[in-house]
Amino acid sequence: MSDKPLLEVDSLYKSFGGITALDGVSFEVESGTLTGLIGPNGAGKSTTFNTIGGILKADSGTVRFDGEDITGESPDRIARKGLVRTFQMSREFQNMTVIENMMIAPTGQRGESALQSITPGLRENVSDQEEDIFEQAWEMLELFDIDHLALENAGALSGGQRKLLELARALMLDPEMLLLDEPFAGVNPTLEKTLIDRIETLRDKGQTFLLVEHDMDVIMEHCERVIVMHQGDTLLTGTPEEVQSEERVIEAYLGGSVA
Amino acid sequence: MTDTAVGGYDNVRAVRVREIVFLTETSEGCRRWISAMPSKLLDIENQFLLQGKYQEWPHEHISLLINIIKGEYHKHTAVLLRFWCISLQIIIYGVIMKMYPHVTLGPIGTVRERLPFAEHAIKIAAIIFGLAVLFDMFRQLTTGELTIALIAGYLWRGLSYGLVIGLAGVGLSLTYDLLDFANFAHGDYITLSAFVGWGVAYLVAGFGQFKTGSLLFLGVGGTVYPQDVGISVTNAPIAILIGLVMAALVGALLAVALDSAVYKSMRGAGNITLLIASVGVAFILRYGAVYLFTQQTFGLTADSWSYKLGLPGGTVTITSASLLLIFVSLLMMLGVHLLLTQTKLGKSMRAMAANQQLARVTGIPSEKIIRRTWLIGGALAGIAGFMIALLQGTINYQIGWTLLLLVFAGVIMGGIGSVYGAIVGGILVGLITRVSLIWIPASFTEATGFAVMILILLTRPAGIFGGDVS
Amino acid sequence: MSVQEGPVASRLPDSLVGYWENDLVKIGATLAAVYLLYVVAGLLLGYGLSGQLNSLRRLTFLIVLYSIGALVVNLHWGYSGLFNIGVVGFMAVGVYTTTILTRPVAGQNPTGTLPGLGLPLPIAIAGGVLAAALVGYLAALPSLRLRDDYFAIVTLAFAEIIRITAKASELQEFTIFGTTVGTGGGRGIRTYPNPINQFFEGTGAPIVNAVSGTIDGPLVSGWTFVLALTFVLVCVLWVIVRIVESPFGRVLKGIRDDEEATTALAKNTGSFKIRSFIIGCGILGLLGIIWQGSQGYISPSLFVPQLTFFIWIAVIIGGAGSNTGSIIGSILFVGTIYLGPGYVRRLVEEFVSLSGRATNFPDALGALAGGDISGIILYTLDQTSALRVILTGVLLIWLLKRRPDGLFGNRREMASSIDVESRVRDRQSNDSTAGGEE
């Protein structure tokens, strides 16, 4: 494990015609950690994710991933480099089945070349890989306990099930780092516990997670570090204990200005 | 309440939702600010409020708005999302300002567009191209390939043609922006109104001399000929006038009737579905015209007074038809301008175009406005159709369709949603297609218009007046 | 069995529902039903064996060609979310290119016809397909930056530019790099001889002679050509099914569903859209070559938006997103709306005695006012081409309002090269039979 942080966000500014959504956000995330990102509504957490993930272009500032400058790259390139995000409003493919949603995810599929899918000899290779992908997808579905929904259209799932699918699908990409945008909203507590345990196991194996959540218990119990955002800027970063006791954080959440 | 001016738009003191809508009437700049919102904003806003966090905000209008939006959420329409995300942005903005009055809201100053390099390069290339074109024009003038008279002729014809396209474009632009779909039947509104208008004109001019049926149907099948009836601007001005009015009426009624029959039950169906439906309507209308009038091309006018203007290198013929056209077009444009700026209807239309969901919440009756927009757009289409037939001296079932793509070009160039943009864009298209005759063979003039439209779509989809941002 | 019951399946008796499952059966049954309709019409009209065979030949000819067009539109729109309303433009590129490539060289061309580059037909066909694919590439580039309705307008603009170019008198005949070629301009151009016709005029002549006692001679080559076209359809279907039932097709479905989410899953969506568009346009080029080209003469007026519109309705009837639906939609469209009005007219003329003529609408109305309805009926029946389009428009609007999914649009067609559905069911039944907790 290198001592350089895996993700470095430096002075991101983003404004939308008069509203400043990001006002100099800066933080670092170490590899192999589970970090929390918290802040009151409107603090800019999702905008930060969008900017890191490449959907939004920052006005200024840089994002470095694994030492490489990824500021302004297209979202698919960033995902290919190993930095994957989930969406707060889960964006599963509503008109496709759950199993298809899962199987679309892995990168580097041979069958994504039209030529290989058509040509008689090469199509067998594609099918071989499809079998592997299917196994992988099925395992993941079983893990998340949604395998019984495999043939359902993703649009027919309940809110909590969609969240699970979103997370399971993101994990299919085997990302180096995962930006999770409120992954547990609408998920029942037992399953939430299973999931967070699972995430911790993956973290122990070396994957990195940055987690936006409003459930303070989850954050405080499981995250090694917490980043607090407020009004588009990083308020402070520290361990859960440090953050919990900090006056400024309390004030930020209760409303009123922060000096 | 803070005095902080935001972005130089002094009137933006949005506190209550009801007031926000009428901001569009107080500051054109605010409207521009609204339309500059990038569509990517949706992630911020929709997460916010659809997650149910709106309960924290003490504003009952907002929950009403959310329910409307939830009911009309259509995953395939990214632009519909943009509209309500803009409205949410305004609400949040307003509510933030109310709850945190001391918070300054970002850097003051107008929105500076940071154009990526490619767009700069294209702009420079366009300027160089424009200069090269002008240079070549002068060169041709000196060698004699080109004469002042020829250029003037092109400009005059281009202006006439462009005004028609512009008039037709106003209706298209308005409904495109208001209902968010490309109305491919617009061309056939033009055609049918033109046929009815001219039929009536013939009837008035030739009344008593020929069979009513033959006159109304423009002598289809060779029963009546233009020379027999002898309509022209100078010979039968009353007939022309009545025909023009008739065309406007029919255009208006047709637009409203079709909206009630077809589009009304499909509000919110998604822009592609509506587009396809409008294609269906277009074909029904067009081949309805074929059914009634066959595919024959009808001559319409007899010779009329025209003025031959002598200029270096030749003469430019200014026909009475084109004079009437320019007069009527300018009159119409003035009327539309007055409508939009002075009347309550116009202000409501502008507000609605900026944000439909919001307007509905605050009590602006939107169905009424939609109907009136169709009326206006349809009437203008009818006038445009009558005029183009007058200008060309002929009419057939395709007259509106062949115009339609050019009308789209004009609307896109000018910026969807902007009435002035539609007119300016139309005039530009007319001028481009005619003036390009200096370099390009006559067969390709329309293709030039389309090529320019494609170029604009690729480089600046918002058009000149920046209506819609894709 | 299948979870969703389509409108037809729910109306069938249970014993037959099982058979209906198979797509080939669906297609065959629909085709058989339409054939039956036409045979009955033919009997009523007094067609002999040759007449019936010819009527069915024409029906099948159009069905096969519309099916190919519908499959491409389905690939573009139903699978990739690309709204292509410039379909005819790509067909024109294909056939015009092939014509120019294969027409006899200047000096060897028959008098009164235009010269070309004199290449053999197979090479010229390949060239036409490639040209259409290339133009498709150019047209696809804007799709990366434009939302779907703007892209639709761009495709229409492309098709019009192509038609204008084909019609331009400046290109009617021109010399470039020393060779003279031409498009024929507004007058059009003779294309190329149909190799199947040539065969039956030459070495195959004995076959024609042998059957000419029972049926008309030209029917032999006519039907053989139709069967050859059917083979082309099968090949096209084969290619498209393999594209669609694969990871490539899966990504296309994802793009149609939510392009941004697909991008977030590390897929370069632009590349997928372009590839899908190019493949479709190449096939459209081939379609133009075997359709209009095989008729011996083409002109710009053949490639009008009306044809695009007809192909689209076939797709919508069948349901966007289903290949089977596209074929069945084509069968139904050609069988009922396209050829229907003509047959209705002939049937009416045969069995209902109508006197009087009306060559134009006002006269027909006048007759109606005088109490005579035959004028207006005759006039209406005469307007078959207009009726066809009006019916199509009405049907389109009705479909969009009531059944936007068409017949098969909401079917689940898995995008994978392996049979995922049965594998899942196996696992699911194993889990339930295994019982117990993990």
General description of the model:
The complex is a heterotrimer of chains A (259), B (470) and C (438). Helix content of chain A is 39%, strand content 23%. Chain A is an alpha/beta fold and 259 residues long. Chain A folds into 2 domains: 7-92 and 166-254, Rossmann fold; 95-156, no CATH class. Chain B has 19 helices and 4 strands. A two-stranded antiparallel ribbon of chain B has the order 1-4. Chain B has 470 residues and is mostly helical. Chain B has 2 domains: 17-99, no CATH class; 147-459, Orthogonal Bundle (ABC transporter involved in vitamin B12 uptake, BtuC), CATH 1.10.3470. Chain B is globular and about 55 Å long. In chain C, the strands form 2 sheets. A two-stranded antiparallel ribbon of chain C has the order 1-2. Chain C has 19 helices and 4 strands.
Descriptive labels:
heterotrimer; A: 259 residues; alpha/beta; Rossmann fold; six-stranded mixed β-sheet; four-stranded antiparallel β-sheet; 10 strands; globular; C: 438 residues; ABC transporter involved in vitamin B12 uptake, BtuC; two-stranded antiparallel ribbon; 2% strand
Radius of gyration of chain B: 25 Å
Q: What's the count of strands of chain C?
A: 4
Name of the top-level CATH class of the largest domain in chain B: Mainly Alpha
> Judging from the principal axes of the Cα atoms, what is the shape of chain C?
globular
User: Number of helical runs of chain B?
Assistant: 19
Compute the number of structural domains of chain B. 2
Structural class of chain C: mainly alpha
Which stretches of chain C of 5+ consecutive residues score pLDDT under 50?
none
- SSE string of chain B: HHHHHHHHHHHHEEEHHHHEHHH
Distance between the termini of chain B: 35 Å
Mean of residue pLDDT of chain B?
A: 72
Please give a quick description of this structure.
The complex is a heterotrimer of chains A (259), B (470) and C (438). Helix content of chain A is 39%, strand content 23%.
What is the element layout, followed by pairings?
The complex is a heterotrimer of chains A (259), B (470) and C (438).
Chain A: E1 7-16, E2 19-29, E3 34-38, H1 45-53, E4 60-65, E5 68-69, H2 75-80, E6 83-85, H3 98-103, H4 114-118, H5 120-143, H6 159-172, E7 177-181, H7 189-204, E8 208-212, H8 216-222, E9 225-230, E10 233-238, H9 240-245, H10 247-254
Parallel strand pairs in A: 3-8, 3-9, 6-7, 7-8
Antiparallel strand pairs in A: 1-2, 1-4, 4-5, 9-10
Helix pairs in contact in A: 5-6
Chain B: H1 17-26, H2 28-35, H3 42-50, H4 60-72, H5 78-99, H6 117-143, H7 148-179, H8 186-205, H9 212-216, H10 226-229, H11 237-263, H12 271-293, E1 298-299, E2 306-311, E3 314-319, H13 320-342, H14 344-354, H15 356-361, H16 366-392, E4 394-395, H17 399-414, H18 419-435, H19 445-459
Antiparallel strand pairs in B: 1-4, 2-3
Helix pairs in contact in B: 1-2, 1-14, 3-5, 7-13, 7-14, 7-16, 7-17, 7-18, 8-11, 8-12, 8-16, 8-17, 11-16, 13-14, 13-16, 14-16, 17-18, 17-19, 18-19
Chain C: H1 14-20, H2 23-44, H3 49-79, H4 87-102, H5 121-140, H6 148-167, E1 174-176, E2 179-181, E3 189-190, H7 195-201, H8 205-211, H9 218-244, H10 247-257, H11 259-264, H12 269-290, E4 297-298, H13 305-318, H14 323-338, H15 340-351, H16 361-369, H17 374-382, H18 384-402, H19 420-434
Antiparallel strand pairs in C: 1-2, 3-4
Helix pairs in contact in C: 2-3, 2-14, 3-9, 3-12, 3-13, 3-14, 4-5, 4-6, 4-12, 5-12, 7-9, 10-12, 13-14, 13-18, 15-18, 16-17
